[in-house]
Amino acid sequence: MKVLLLNGSPRKGNTMTALNALKEGLAKIPEAEVTEIIAEDQNIIPCKACNACMSMSRCIFADDSPEINAAVEEADAIVFATPVYWWGMTAQLKLIVDKFYARSAKLKGPKKVGSIVVGEAELDDPEYDIIATQIRCICEHLGWEAVFTKSYMANKPADLKGDEAAMQEIAGLAELLK
Predict the structure, then answer these.
(1) At what angle do helices 164-172 and 14-27 cross, to 10 degrees?
(2) pTM of the entire structure?
(3) Residue 59 domain-assigned?
(4) Of 46, 83, 122, 138, which one is least surrounded by beta carbons within 10 A?
């Protein structure tokens, strides 16, 4: 079972803490093979909607998107993790998602998908629903199964780590990816 973690955070804070808890849960699943891609560390040229990729099955620009899309294609499960930036996922993660267009036909098919969103607002704020809806739409378009969408409120970098119940819940999400 290949699990791909897409870390959209440009910092080492609550999103990374959440993914570390998830990795602890995944470590208890013997068949889980985990790969993490940190969006901030990738060289991604924004999509220009030139459509050259439709005849090439890859983006015309020389960046890291072909390797990322190959990892997405090979994954059995994908977890999108992002802090909230202006009511949406980070620009870094959105660049990766936009480049799915280049291989969308090859990305279609059964995958289990989860999302972990961390923000400063109260959990009833619409920002969490906006991101969850976007990820659900991606899943529906590509024929993927959204198995969890979790949101957590954390203001300071260590807030999530101090929330024992949240950390246990996140570790337990690994089971839903099987």
Answers:
(1) 50
(2) 0.96
(3) yes
(4) 122
